[in-house]
Amino acid sequence: MNRIVVAVKQVPDMERVKFDTVAGRVDRSSAPGVVNPVDLHALEAAMRIRDDHGGEVVAISMGPQQAESALKECLARGADRVVLLADKAFAGADTWATSYTLASAIKKLGGCDLVVCGEKTVDGDTGQVGPETAEWLGIPHVNYVREIVSVDGRLKALCDMSDGLYLAEVTLPALITVTRKAHRPRYATPQRIYAAVDASIEKWGAAELADVATSDNFGLRGSPTRLTRVVVPPVEGRKGEWIRGAPDEVVATLLAKLETGGIL
Amino acid sequence: MSSTRGVMIFAEQTGGVVHPVANELLGKGREIADTLGVELSAVLCGHCMEQEAQELIYRGADNVYLFDNEALASFDIMNYRANIVALVEETKPDIFLLGATPIGRSLGPRLAAALNTGLTADCTSLEVDDEGHLVQIRPAFSGNILAHIKTETRPQMATVRYKIMQSLPRDVERQGHIVRPSLTIGEPLARLSKVPTDVEKQIGVSEAEVIVCGGRGLKKPEDLVMLKELADALGGVVGCSKPLVDSGWMDKEHLVGFSGNTVRPRVYFAVGVSGSSQHLIGMRTSERIIAINSDPTADIFQVADYSIVGDLYEIVPRLTAALRESRERDRTAGSVCS
Q1: Is A142 within 8 Å of chain B by CB?
Q2: Into which CATH architecture does domain A3-222 fall?
Q3: What is the pLDDT of residues B147-166, one digit of tens each?
Q4: Parallel, antiparallel, or unpaired for β B13-14 and B17-18?
């Protein structure tokens, strides 16, 4: 192994973030940014392969300047190098433009043997950026990896498809997306945390990618999809019926309602 | 090959069996194609699947493009991708739909990147606007908002959630063409083989039809047994809210809520769950919600169909017993009739 790239995203902490239910969006200022949880599993998978087969683990992220903290966390947990893709030109990207930018950065790095991504992000929730990145790089990919079995020119992994468990054998270079079942993330050591806090983060913008990418494809300008409307659906009409009485009565009433309503 | 621009759907198959989401895509695709006055096509990759291709015509397709080769018998991302990209480039459909299944979610993004077009994930509704553009509607932030998305490039691509769209009834009078385009088959770079397991795949909270979810109202981990018994009597599974994961009573894979699983079962029992906003966001689109809580001001009651204020330790065992009794009664009644 020469190089393993992990693509991570900074997302709002979903445990703490507040929802503006009127405007229909997450109030990002209400919670700190964290590394998208499943991306830590991706990082762990990459580091285990590095620990067994050598090479460097490079974590890349596209996002605003604040996403630096997500990359510092990757450093603290054991990434060898991190690169932040930050530029106004990258803003407003959909999955097509995001994957194009990530793939361009991987080319700029000089390619790699393996790309590892989380299955999806908790905010965007599309799961598209991984496979789209693989397409830009012209390499095969495997989704929903829950465990890496072996690596030797080919990577073998167990993955969850809708009808059960599959063994995937993929020729390297390749991209895999992992699920939260894969490889529990290790903790950062105090020494690494101290080092990461002070680390200066390598940043690339559109200019740094100029020799591998077309700037028309970046950000909102490059994005083929447009969000045209956001609708806040009313909370569906709930019966909101109170069932009161002694426990036996309550149970009998509930059961009768469930049975006559065809619910059970 | 026809050069008519139209609507195309991907019919996925595993082990020679077409996934039912294909019929749903045909149902919706037929409606869109008729609105636009264009043809509806399906693309099927597999081996020896002539009969299945014919079935897709009975379900609404005007054309079925059948890529028939042993190498396509099971899902092979690179070979599927190469053939479908070539087909789309040649037939130029305006709209291309896939199921939001593991295979569709794997293939769709690759096709979109290769075809230089947009893809909207996990749509729950599709509409055609006055100008004939496809409006792709998807829930975001766990259904708290519905995002309307349009695509400026062609084809307009979307993955569509399973069990949302309506299939058409099977009509054996329906006429259509099965087309066998020329094939490109390369080395399989990503091979998938099913791992035989003795155990049936366990139904998780995200797929369950009935969920009994426990929360902080439970006093000790052993009390989860009581919920398991209720879930068994209902044919469902046990889930939990965040505090139970934090205290190590249950694994995170059972967590219902924004940071865990977003669920949409037929029936959701919230037992001793107060209803933090993070929890509500993960379950409020359930079909029916029954809440049992000792605190009448608990937020969970705001989304409940049936609200029961009371001691879960008194209610749950009685409910389980009553359900078992009623099932027993049905069985006895059945045996008398037969």
Answers
A1: yes
A2: 3-Layer(aba) Sandwich (3.40)
A3: 999 999 999 999 999 888 99
A4: antiparallel
B246 vs chain A: nearest CA distance in angstroms? 12
pLDDT digits (tens, 9 = 90+) for B43-100: 999 999 999 999 999 999 999 999 999 999 999 999 999 999 999 999 999 999 999 9
Within 8 A by CB and 6+ apart from B306, the residues are A239, A241, A243, A254, A257, B288, B289, B290, B291
Q: What is the model's pLDDT at position A235?
A: 62
Residues of chain B contacting A258 with CB distance shorter than 8 Å: 267, 288, 290
Which residues does A12 contact at the CB level (< 8 Å), separation at least 6? Answer: A26, A28, A30, A31, A32, A33, A34, A123
Upper half-sphere CA count for residue A146 (Cβ side, 13 Å): 10
Secondary-structure class of domain B6-179 per CATH: alpha beta
Strand ranges, E, within chain B: 6-11, 13-14, 17-18, 39-46, 63-68, 95-99, 119-123, 125-128, 134-140, 145-151, 156-160, 177-179, 190-194, 210-214, 237-240, 267-271, 288-293, 306-309
Q: Which residue in chain B is spatially nearest to A234 when comparing CA positions? A: B144
Please provide the DSSP assignment of B281-298 as one string.
Answer: HHHTT-SEEEEEES-TT-
How would DSSP label each residue in A212-251?
T--GGGSHHHH-SEEEEEEE-PPPP----EEE-SSHHHHH
CATH code reported for the domain at B210-337:
3.40.50.1220
Contact yes or no for B258 and A25 at CB 8 A: no
Please state whether the predicted TM-score (pTM) of the whole model is above 0.90. no
Q: Please, what is the average pLDDT of chain A? A: 93
Q: In angstroms, rounded to a whole number, what is the distance separating the alpha carbons of residues B47 and B79?
A: 13
CA distances (Å), origin B163, targets B112, B153, B206, B291 = 23, 28, 14, 26
Contact yes or no for B145 and A25 at CB 8 A: yes
Determine, for residues A166 and B192 on separate chains, whether the beta-carbon distance falls below 8 Å. yes
Return the H-helix or E-strand segment holding B260: none
Burial class of residue B23, CB neighbours in 10 A (0-12, 13-18, 19+): buried
Domain with CATH 3.40.50.1220 in chain B: 210-337
Amino acid type, A128: Q
Residue B199 sits at the chain A interface (C-beta within 8 Å): no
